[in-house]
Amino acid sequence: MAVKVVVLGAAGRMGKTLIRCIMEEKVPGLELHGAVDLWDAPGLNADAGVLAGTKAAGVNLISNLEEVGPSADVIVDFSGHFGVAGNAPRIAEWGTAWVIGTTGLNDEEIAAVEAAAEKTAVVLSGNMSLGINLLCHLVELGARSLKDKGYDVEIIERHHGLKKDSPSGTALMLGQAAADGYDWDLKEVQVDGRTGLPGERPEKEIGFHAVRGGDIVGDHTVMMAGVGELLELSHRATSRDVFAIGALQAAVWVAGKEARLYTMKDAMKHVLGL
Fold it and tell me: Which sites bind (S)-2,3,4,5-tetrahydrodipicolinate (predicted)?
Protein backbone atom coordinates (compact mmCIF):
# COMPACT_ATOMS: atom_id res chain seq x y z
CA MET A 1 0.00 0.00 0.00
CA ALA A 2 1.39 3.40 -1.01
CA VAL A 3 2.62 5.86 1.60
CA LYS A 4 0.40 8.96 1.47
CA VAL A 5 2.60 12.08 1.36
CA VAL A 6 1.70 15.74 1.87
CA VAL A 7 4.23 18.25 0.54
CA LEU A 8 4.34 21.40 2.67
CA GLY A 9 5.93 24.37 0.92
CA ALA A 10 4.67 22.90 -2.34
CA ALA A 11 4.91 26.11 -4.39
CA GLY A 12 8.63 26.59 -3.71
CA ARG A 13 11.63 25.25 -5.61
CA MET A 14 12.04 22.21 -3.39
CA GLY A 15 8.31 21.65 -3.09
CA LYS A 16 7.89 21.44 -6.86
CA THR A 17 10.91 19.13 -7.10
CA LEU A 18 9.38 16.83 -4.48
CA ILE A 19 6.07 16.70 -6.32
CA ARG A 20 7.76 15.98 -9.64
CA CYS A 21 9.85 13.19 -8.09
CA ILE A 22 6.72 11.63 -6.56
CA MET A 23 4.80 11.81 -9.83
CA GLU A 24 7.75 10.39 -11.79
CA GLU A 25 8.15 7.61 -9.18
CA LYS A 26 11.78 8.43 -8.45
CA VAL A 27 11.12 6.74 -5.09
CA PRO A 28 8.67 3.81 -5.34
CA GLY A 29 5.74 3.35 -2.99
CA LEU A 30 4.56 6.95 -2.61
CA GLU A 31 1.28 8.68 -3.36
CA LEU A 32 0.84 12.47 -3.46
CA HIS A 33 -1.94 13.03 -0.94
CA GLY A 34 -1.73 16.80 -0.61
CA ALA A 35 0.17 19.93 -1.68
CA VAL A 36 0.08 22.89 0.71
CA ASP A 37 1.56 26.38 0.74
CA LEU A 38 0.66 29.89 1.90
CA TRP A 39 -2.65 31.51 1.01
CA ASP A 40 -0.93 33.87 -1.47
CA ALA A 41 1.19 31.22 -3.20
CA PRO A 42 1.21 31.40 -7.02
CA GLY A 43 -1.08 28.80 -8.61
CA LEU A 44 -3.30 28.23 -5.59
CA ASN A 45 -6.15 25.78 -6.42
CA ALA A 46 -4.39 24.61 -9.61
CA ASP A 47 -3.19 21.04 -10.13
CA ALA A 48 0.03 20.56 -8.14
CA GLY A 49 1.57 18.24 -10.72
CA VAL A 50 1.08 20.68 -13.55
CA LEU A 51 2.49 23.51 -11.42
CA ALA A 52 5.56 21.35 -10.77
CA GLY A 53 6.11 20.85 -14.51
CA THR A 54 5.03 17.23 -14.68
CA LYS A 55 1.84 15.26 -15.34
CA ALA A 56 -1.44 16.13 -13.64
CA ALA A 57 -1.56 14.81 -10.07
CA GLY A 58 -5.28 15.09 -9.41
CA VAL A 59 -4.28 17.03 -6.29
CA ASN A 60 -4.66 20.80 -6.16
CA LEU A 61 -2.40 23.26 -4.36
CA ILE A 62 -4.22 24.42 -1.21
CA SER A 63 -3.42 26.62 1.78
CA ASN A 64 -5.05 24.67 4.62
CA LEU A 65 -2.88 21.86 6.01
CA GLU A 66 -5.77 20.63 8.15
CA GLU A 67 -7.60 19.40 5.03
CA VAL A 68 -4.95 16.77 4.29
CA GLY A 69 -2.50 16.53 7.20
CA PRO A 70 -4.49 14.31 9.61
CA SER A 71 -5.21 11.68 6.92
CA ALA A 72 -1.65 11.54 5.52
CA ASP A 73 1.05 9.06 6.49
CA VAL A 74 3.89 11.59 6.22
CA ILE A 75 4.26 15.36 5.82
CA VAL A 76 7.42 16.38 3.96
CA ASP A 77 8.15 19.96 4.96
CA PHE A 78 10.28 22.44 3.01
CA SER A 79 8.27 25.51 4.01
CA GLY A 80 9.84 28.12 6.30
CA HIS A 81 11.05 28.28 9.88
CA PHE A 82 7.97 30.18 11.10
CA GLY A 83 5.70 27.58 9.54
CA VAL A 84 7.60 24.68 11.07
CA ALA A 85 7.20 26.02 14.60
CA GLY A 86 3.58 27.04 14.01
CA ASN A 87 2.56 23.66 12.61
CA ALA A 88 4.42 21.55 15.18
CA PRO A 89 1.64 21.30 17.83
CA ARG A 90 -1.10 20.21 15.43
CA ILE A 91 1.10 17.75 13.53
CA ALA A 92 1.94 16.24 16.90
CA GLU A 93 -1.74 15.93 17.77
CA TRP A 94 -2.54 14.28 14.43
CA GLY A 95 0.30 11.80 14.90
CA THR A 96 1.34 12.21 11.27
CA ALA A 97 5.01 11.41 10.63
CA TRP A 98 7.02 14.50 9.69
CA VAL A 99 10.13 14.90 7.54
CA ILE A 100 11.62 18.41 7.94
CA GLY A 101 14.10 19.75 5.41
CA THR A 102 13.49 23.40 6.29
CA THR A 103 16.68 25.09 7.50
CA GLY A 104 17.40 28.22 9.53
CA LEU A 105 15.50 27.04 12.62
CA ASN A 106 16.39 28.87 15.83
CA ASP A 107 16.55 27.28 19.29
CA GLU A 108 12.90 28.03 20.06
CA GLU A 109 11.73 26.52 16.77
CA ILE A 110 13.88 23.42 17.27
CA ALA A 111 12.34 23.07 20.73
CA ALA A 112 8.88 23.05 19.11
CA VAL A 113 10.01 20.23 16.79
CA GLU A 114 11.46 18.29 19.74
CA ALA A 115 8.16 18.64 21.59
CA ALA A 116 6.28 17.30 18.55
CA ALA A 117 8.66 14.33 18.39
CA GLU A 118 7.38 13.23 21.79
CA LYS A 119 4.07 12.41 20.09
CA THR A 120 4.99 11.51 16.50
CA ALA A 121 7.96 10.34 14.42
CA VAL A 122 10.04 13.25 13.08
CA VAL A 123 13.08 13.25 10.78
CA LEU A 124 14.97 16.56 10.99
CA SER A 125 17.99 17.26 8.79
CA GLY A 126 19.77 20.23 7.27
CA ASN A 127 20.40 18.16 4.13
CA MET A 128 18.63 15.08 2.81
CA SER A 129 21.10 13.88 0.19
CA LEU A 130 22.87 10.54 0.47
CA GLY A 131 26.23 12.10 -0.43
CA ILE A 132 26.13 14.81 2.24
CA ASN A 133 25.14 12.36 4.95
CA LEU A 134 28.03 10.11 3.96
CA LEU A 135 30.31 13.17 3.93
CA CYS A 136 29.26 14.02 7.50
CA HIS A 137 30.26 10.52 8.54
CA LEU A 138 33.65 10.89 6.84
CA VAL A 139 34.23 14.33 8.37
CA GLU A 140 33.56 12.99 11.87
CA LEU A 141 35.91 10.06 11.27
CA GLY A 142 38.59 12.40 9.90
CA ALA A 143 38.29 14.83 12.79
CA ARG A 144 38.46 12.01 15.30
CA SER A 145 41.64 10.74 13.65
CA LEU A 146 43.19 14.24 13.59
CA LYS A 147 42.09 15.27 17.08
CA ASP A 148 44.85 17.03 19.05
CA LYS A 149 47.16 16.97 16.01
CA GLY A 150 46.88 20.68 15.22
CA TYR A 151 44.51 20.64 12.22
CA ASP A 152 42.27 23.70 11.85
CA VAL A 153 38.73 23.21 10.48
CA GLU A 154 37.09 25.70 8.12
CA ILE A 155 33.83 25.18 6.20
CA ILE A 156 33.08 26.97 2.93
CA GLU A 157 29.55 26.81 1.51
CA ARG A 158 28.20 28.24 -1.76
CA HIS A 159 24.54 28.68 -2.68
CA HIS A 160 22.27 30.58 -5.06
CA GLY A 161 21.51 34.22 -4.41
CA LEU A 162 17.96 33.56 -3.20
CA LYS A 163 18.96 31.48 -0.18
CA LYS A 164 17.83 33.17 3.03
CA ASP A 165 19.76 31.50 5.86
CA SER A 166 23.48 31.49 6.56
CA PRO A 167 25.45 29.42 7.35
CA SER A 168 23.49 26.78 5.48
CA GLY A 169 21.93 23.92 7.37
CA THR A 170 24.31 21.60 5.57
CA ALA A 171 27.35 23.61 6.65
CA LEU A 172 26.14 23.39 10.24
CA MET A 173 25.71 19.61 9.88
CA LEU A 174 29.30 19.35 8.65
CA GLY A 175 30.51 21.64 11.43
CA GLN A 176 28.71 19.50 13.99
CA ALA A 177 30.33 16.38 12.53
CA ALA A 178 33.79 17.96 12.88
CA ALA A 179 32.99 19.18 16.39
CA ASP A 180 31.81 15.70 17.38
CA GLY A 181 35.07 14.24 16.10
CA TYR A 182 37.07 16.77 18.11
CA ASP A 183 34.78 16.42 21.17
CA TRP A 184 33.99 20.13 21.05
CA ASP A 185 30.75 22.03 21.66
CA LEU A 186 30.00 23.59 18.26
CA LYS A 187 28.24 26.64 19.75
CA GLU A 188 31.37 27.47 21.75
CA VAL A 189 33.80 27.27 18.79
CA GLN A 190 31.70 28.45 15.81
CA VAL A 191 32.85 31.63 14.05
CA ASP A 192 30.83 32.98 11.10
CA GLY A 193 33.23 34.78 8.76
CA ARG A 194 35.94 37.20 9.79
CA THR A 195 36.51 40.89 9.26
CA GLY A 196 38.64 43.68 10.70
CA LEU A 197 41.39 42.53 13.04
CA PRO A 198 40.16 39.31 14.68
CA GLY A 199 43.69 38.38 15.70
CA GLU A 200 45.40 35.02 15.45
CA ARG A 201 43.21 31.99 14.99
CA PRO A 202 42.69 30.22 18.34
CA GLU A 203 43.23 26.47 18.57
CA LYS A 204 39.56 25.71 19.27
CA GLU A 205 37.64 27.29 16.41
CA ILE A 206 35.54 26.14 13.44
CA GLY A 207 35.08 28.84 10.82
CA PHE A 208 32.09 29.13 8.48
CA HIS A 209 32.15 31.11 5.24
CA ALA A 210 29.07 31.66 3.05
CA VAL A 211 29.14 32.52 -0.66
CA ARG A 212 25.91 33.57 -2.41
CA GLY A 213 25.35 34.04 -6.12
CA GLY A 214 23.77 32.87 -9.35
CA ASP A 215 21.95 29.55 -9.38
CA ILE A 216 24.41 27.42 -7.37
CA VAL A 217 22.43 24.45 -6.03
CA GLY A 218 24.84 23.77 -3.17
CA ASP A 219 28.61 23.33 -2.80
CA HIS A 220 30.27 22.48 0.52
CA THR A 221 33.93 22.00 1.42
CA VAL A 222 35.37 21.02 4.79
CA MET A 223 38.98 22.10 5.03
CA MET A 224 41.30 20.53 7.61
CA ALA A 225 44.52 22.54 7.53
CA GLY A 226 47.65 21.26 9.17
CA VAL A 227 51.25 22.42 9.02
CA GLY A 228 52.63 21.34 5.66
CA GLU A 229 49.43 19.81 4.27
CA LEU A 230 45.78 20.55 3.56
CA LEU A 231 42.95 18.01 3.51
CA GLU A 232 39.68 18.95 1.79
CA LEU A 233 36.44 16.96 1.74
CA SER A 234 33.84 18.31 -0.68
CA HIS A 235 30.35 17.73 -2.03
CA ARG A 236 28.71 19.43 -5.01
CA ALA A 237 24.99 19.14 -5.72
CA THR A 238 24.15 19.60 -9.41
CA SER A 239 20.40 18.99 -9.07
CA ARG A 240 17.77 19.50 -6.36
CA ASP A 241 16.56 16.01 -7.16
CA VAL A 242 19.15 14.56 -4.76
CA PHE A 243 17.59 16.43 -1.83
CA ALA A 244 14.05 15.52 -2.86
CA ILE A 245 14.87 11.84 -3.38
CA GLY A 246 16.59 11.68 0.01
CA ALA A 247 13.61 13.34 1.72
CA LEU A 248 11.20 10.94 0.03
CA GLN A 249 13.34 7.95 1.02
CA ALA A 250 13.15 9.27 4.58
CA ALA A 251 9.36 9.55 4.22
CA VAL A 252 9.06 5.89 3.23
CA TRP A 253 11.35 4.91 6.11
CA VAL A 254 9.70 6.97 8.86
CA ALA A 255 6.07 6.09 8.09
CA GLY A 256 4.80 4.02 10.99
CA LYS A 257 7.90 4.49 13.15
CA GLU A 258 7.56 5.14 16.89
CA ALA A 259 7.48 8.73 18.15
CA ARG A 260 10.95 10.27 18.54
CA LEU A 261 13.31 12.66 16.79
CA TYR A 262 15.35 10.94 14.07
CA THR A 263 18.18 12.12 11.82
CA MET A 264 18.94 11.29 8.21
CA LYS A 265 21.72 9.08 9.53
CA ASP A 266 19.00 6.98 11.19
CA ALA A 267 16.96 6.90 7.99
CA MET A 268 19.92 6.03 5.77
CA LYS A 269 21.74 3.48 7.92
CA HIS A 270 20.58 0.65 5.67
CA VAL A 271 21.75 2.55 2.57
CA LEU A 272 25.08 3.79 3.93
CA GLY A 273 25.88 0.66 5.89
CA LEU A 274 26.72 2.68 9.00
Answer: 160, 169-170
